[in-house]
Structure formats: structure tokens, C-alpha cells
Write a structure and sequence with these properties.
Mean pLDDT: 96
Number of strands: 25
Largest sheet: 7 strands, mixed
Low-confidence stretches: none
Shape: globular
Number of helices: 4
Strand order of the largest sheet: 19-18-15-16-21-17-20
CATH topology of the largest domain: Cathepsin D, subunit A, domain 1
Radius of gyration: 20 Å
Order of helices and strands: EEEEEEEHEHEHEEEEEEEEEEHEEEEEE
Distance between the termini: 18 Å
CATH class of the largest domain: Mainly Beta
Length: 367
């Protein structure tokens, strides 16, 4: 178990709301040279540890992962909010709550020793290069899957996720295959024990907004006294990690739970969108209650009600960082992004692909 917190983020990170952070320790493999990095974003919508170059101590001297030609292997990841992260891979031990995933590829974001991202990675998106626009010192991707993009990236050269330098100067890049061993990884399945999933346990945020909220990230499902399943319902997902959300008669088959998203994002014709500085969120005149049904690939159904508030009013108090009623349009009628407000007041379990537990074999969500 390891503590997690929702707060304003690291120094110089700008204005952040509904961001779930954890401290992560990295070490040079097989050494005692380590560094603990605070305010790393917990993101159940991505895979692998990604840290800003500016926060990683050069003294760690982490060895780079190389491609087939011996040049550095680099990762591009594009997020649902139209941002991306670019940078080389290095090997590190990842330590979380006393558990270690050894010699794991991690991404160093915005490493100044390599050139800018190729257009296939960066087109139409904003680069995350510093705490001021990332809102964190890094990202800890703890999705339902073990590797970043699995067999596809191992077999396909132009996979869109991995590149290698086209020459020794690393000023230009070409697409590259990445074996399963080379890809960014969810560290949890690599732990010696408690490795079949995670449990995110956050208290309710209450009816109003708050300045701070603390909870726990617990490793394993049904393996310790603090990660027992109780009476939760398990919703399995398809091979791509999606389930279905039914809302107002509309079925959204590309739905997912994502602690890395700071609101609930879905398209609505009845809830007015914000204008001006709160663009991208909803601004109803009064608090609006919405009911939806989540349906797993196993046909298990769970009804969920939530409320949507006026984002412009919420953002009026910069001391507040916890907004349980924050929501916005998705821009995709097939998707519902159940962001961090979904996790407030719930114990949410996530079963990792191929890992067995008393709830079955992952991938699944349970709450």
C-alpha cells in the first residue's frame, strides 16, 4: 500500500484540479543509487512510468534502451486530452510501497539530448515538457494491461508508439519495433507478490469542493487483508480495455475508468458547455443529476448516478483542487471517460490482463 493525494501538484505546476499523485522511487538497477520523486500522476488510462527529464538526477546514470541499430529507443504517447509525451527509454528499478519492479524500461520525457518528436507523434497536439504544462513530475501508468502496446509494437515497425534515432546525433527518427522486453510496462505484474491488480481507495469528497484529499493505492486483489473484494461487481472488458456505458438510450462502447482525467467526460445535448476560460467543461445553471449504466463484456451491469456542476464557479476559488462534480464534453459519441470524480467515495479494483484473482482473470474493473 502507498499513500496517494489530490492537491495542487508540484511547485510551479500551475493550476491543477482532480489530479491524483503518488511518490515514486527509482533506482539504478542492481545499485543503491536511488531517487524519490513526488507528485507523479497516477494514470489508469496509460501504461508505464514516464518522468520529466528535468526531475531525474543525472547521478542516477540510467542506461538507455537501444533499438536494432544500437541507437536509443524512444517512446511517443498521445493522451485523450490532445497532449503527448516524447522521450527516450532507460532502465530503472521502480519501487512503490516497498515493492520493486526490477530493471524496467521507463520514459524520460523531454530529454534535451534528443531532437523534437517526429510529426507523426506531435501533429495537432501539445507537447508535455515541464511541470508547468504536465501538472506533475511524471506519470505512473497503471492500466489493465502489462505492456504499452504489446504484440502489435513488437511486430510492426511503424507502430506510432516507438521510434529510434536515424543517426548518432539523434536529430531525426524512424519508426521502430519494440519487443515486449523493451516496451514500457505496468510495474505491478512484475512485483514478487500482490501482482494481480490494484485497488484505489479514495474517500468521498462530500457535497462541496475541497482543498485536499488523501487515500491509498493498494497492490493485489484478494491477497491481503486490505485488498479483499467484498461484494463488488466485476465488469470485464474487451481486448482493448473498454466496457459500455448506457446513458439516455445511447450506448458508448468505448468507455473506460481513468484516474488521469480530471473530470467525467461524455457528450450531452442537454447540459450546456462552458465558454471562455472554462471551455472544455460543462456549466449547467443548477447542479444536474445524471444516471448511467455501466455494462461489462460479461454482461454484468452497474447503475451509477453522478452530479454535474458549473465548472466556472468551481474554478473561481483557486485554493480548491477537489471537484466531485466536474464534467465536460468528450467530443466522441462512442466514448465515456470516467475520470477521477468517479473514484471519489469508492474502492475501485482493476484486474490486470492474464492475472487471476477471486473475481476472475483480468482485464476487469470492479467496484
Amino acid at each position: 500500500m502507498i499513500p496517494v493525494v489530490v492537491d495542487a501538484g508540484p511547485v510551479d505546476a500551475g493550476y491543477n484540479v482532480n489530479r491524483l499523485y503518488v511518490d515514486v522511487t527509482i533506482c539504478r538497477p542492481a545499485s543503491t543509487e536511488c531517487q524519490t520523486i513526488d507528485h507523479v500522476l497516477v494514470d489508469t488510462g496509460s501504461i508505464g512510468l514516464r518522468l520529466l527529464s528535468s526531475v531525474v538526477k543525472p547521478a542516477l546514470n540510467l542506461r538507455r534502451v537501444t533499438g536494432s541499430a544500437g541507437f536509443p529507443l524512444l517512446s511517443c504517447v498521445q493522451f485523450v486530452d490532445n497532449t503527448f509525451a516524447w522521450g527516450p527509454l532507460v532502465l530503472a528499478d521502480i519501487v512503490l510501497g516497498g515493492k520493486t519492479a526490477s530493471s524496467v524500461p521507463i520514459q524520460v520525457i523531454a530529454d534535451p539530448t534528443v531532437g523534437n518528436a517526429p510529426s507523426a507523434c506531435s501533429i495537432g497536439a501539445t507537447a508535455m515538457t515541464a511541470t508547468s504544462n504536465l501538472g506533475a513530475n511524471g506519470i505512473l501508468g497503471l492500466s489493465l494491461f502489462k505492456e504499452d502496446c504489446g504484440a502489435d509494437c513488437a511486430a510492426i515497425t511503424h507502430n506510432g508508439s516507438y521510434y529510434t534515432c536515424s543517426n548518432a546525433s539523434c536529430a531525426s527518427f524512424v519508426g521502430a519495433k519494440a519487443s515486449l522486453a523493451q516496451q514500457l510496462k505496468n510495474p505491478v505484474p512484475l512485483f514478487a507478490t500482490d501482482n494481480n491488480g490494484i485497488l484505489i481507495d479514495l474517500p468521498a469528497a462530500g457535497s462541496g469542493d475541497a482543498t485536499r484529499l488523501t487515500g491509498s493505492l493498494i497492490f493485489g486483489i484478494g491477497t491481503q487483508s486490505n485488498n479483499q473484494t467484498g461484494t463488488v461487481l466485476a465488469l470485464t472488458t474487451g481486448a482493448t480495455g473498454y466496457f459500455t456505458t448506457v446513458l439516455g438510450g445511447q450506448s458508448m462502447g468505448n468507455s473506460f475508468l481513468d484516474t488521469g482525467s480530471n473530470g467525467l467526460f461524455f457528450d450531452s445535448r442537454s447540459i450546456p458547455a462552458c465558454l471562455g476560460s472554462s471551455l472544455g467543461f460543462y456549466c449547467p445553471a443548477t447542479l444536474t443529476t445524471v444516471s448511467a449504466t455501466l455494462v461489462g463484456a460479461n454482461a454484468v451491469r452497474s447503475s451509477v448516478s453522478f452530479t454535474v456542476g458549473d465548472a466556472s464557479t468551481m474554478f473561481g476559488d483557486p485554493s480548491k483542487t477537489v471537484f466531485p462534480n466536474l464534467a465536460g464534453p468528450m467530443g466522441d459519441a462512442t466514448s465515456f471517460d470516467w475520470g477521477l470524480p468517479f473514484f471519489y467515495g469508492r474502492r475501485v479494483l482493476m484486474g490486470i490482463e492474464g492475472q487471476a484473482s477471486s473475481l476472475g482473470t483480468g482485464p476487469y474493473y470492479a467496484f
